[in-house]
Amino acid sequence: MTLHRLIDSRLMASLLGTVALLLSACSPTAAPSPTAAKPAASATSSGASDAKPAASPAISPAASPAASPAASPAASPAAQVNAPAASAPVSLSGTAKLGAVFSQTGAGAQYGVTQKNGVQLAVDEINASRALGDAKIEVVFEDDASDKAPGINAFQKLINQDRVLAIIGPTLSNTAQATDPAAQSAGVPVLGVSNTAGGITEIGNFIFRDSLTEAQVIPQTVAAVKEKANVQKAALLYGNDDAFTQAGYEVMKKSLVDSGIQITSEQTFAKGDKEFSAQLTVIRGTNPDALFVSALVDEAVGIVTQARRLGMDKTPIVGGNGFNSPALMKGADTAAEGVIVGAAWNSASTNTKSQDFIRNYKARYNSDPDQFATQAYAGVYIMAEGLKNAKSVTDRQALRDGLTKVSNLDTALGTFSFTDGRDAQHPAVVQIVRNGAFAVY
Fold first, then answer.
1. CA-CA distances (angstroms) from residue 162 to 139, 154, 323?
2. Burial of 355: CB neighbours in 10 Å, binned 0-12, 13-18, 19+
3. pLDDT tens across 214-230, in order?
4. Domain spanning 215-343, CATH class
């Protein structure tokens, strides 16, 4: 073989070897890169102290944990809690079955009835707008009768019989403290839309709420009253047999002390009481600059009416979240004029979504919505955002993880996010009753 032929032969062999290597590298059977990321073994909690349920089953066998978005590092709630809401097109299908437990009867019925209205309106709007693509939301409503035992029964039915994806409610914090542990144990996400007592979300990492806590609202209310009404001393009146009213009192007392306001008297009552003259007479004798009251609306009506009747018509009365209902003005009539209360929402807000909600609610129910209807309505839209993030309408774990990613969402409550502890984060407002309606204070 001549020299030039030998060179050509070796060159050809080299080229063929290079081609073979390139083809091998492009083959589907090529070995993975040593630096390829390994999938996460399980979804992580948004807080290290959260109690993890023993099991977090999907609604159907098709929604296996391996297929859940939580299985990939990109969907880790610990890393994505404050991520902006996704804007990608939604291509969900099927039915997201939600439970809603509200007080349709009992002491909390004034709130629960409007909450049910708010949820149904939101569900109808979301389904009609195809906001979830081909998927629809279905809601199973249950009455907790404003009490723990029927509330627990309602949760157990929804979890074990109806096999719901998640639960909205219950109405009262007292009931939530008894019902939410069952959902946490079963791995069912819960969104409280009116639970303001402390410790609710600490029940576990499947428990969320869109309702601002008393600890978030009352200090702002105390500061506003001290400045505008020049309050130097105040009396306290509260229900001592309910988690919500007890929590409100504790925050009120701390806020008054922290603000340097002297407490002249502390009086109590029980749920269902109708007569408050004895407590109010003692309070009047201490000549306070303001009266702070933590009560549900039925008792609030009696307290406000009787305080005015006893001559405390010039004393500012400051209520907790239980006062946030048109039932206060309806029951107390002109006696409610001047009552001040911290709130999560006010109908005077210029928020476009809030104004649209008010208009649509009035058209549907021929009445004005209250804060509780608004929180319930916004809660369904927050759930819908969680479903978009989860990319599933059947996987409870994926929805839990999807809810942790809800951030800067435009709602009727304003721009909404969850805190790292799954509590609500959005603007609060202090309001006063003027001409039979709530106005910004």
1. 10, 10, 34
2. middle
3. 999 999 999 999 999 99
4. alpha beta
Cα 155 to Cα 140, 144, 183, 280, distances in angstroms: 11, 9, 7, 39
390 half-sphere exposure, CB direction, 13 A CA radius: 29
- Cβ count within 10 A of residue 277: 12
Structurally, what CATH architecture does the domain formed by 78-212+350-427 represent?
Answer: 3-Layer(aba) Sandwich (3.40)
Tens of pLDDT, residues 338-357: 999 999 999 988 899 999 99
Q: Are 239 and 246 in contact (CB under 8 A)?
A: yes
CA gap 240, 349 in Å, rounded: 34
Return the half-sphere exposure (C-beta side, CA atoms, 13 A cut-off) of residue 87. 4
In this prediction, residue 91 has a pLDDT band, given cuts at 50, 70 and 90, of confident
Evaluate whether 140 touches 120 at the Cβ level (below 8 Å): no
Sketch the domain layout of the chain as residue ranges: 78-212+350-427, 215-343
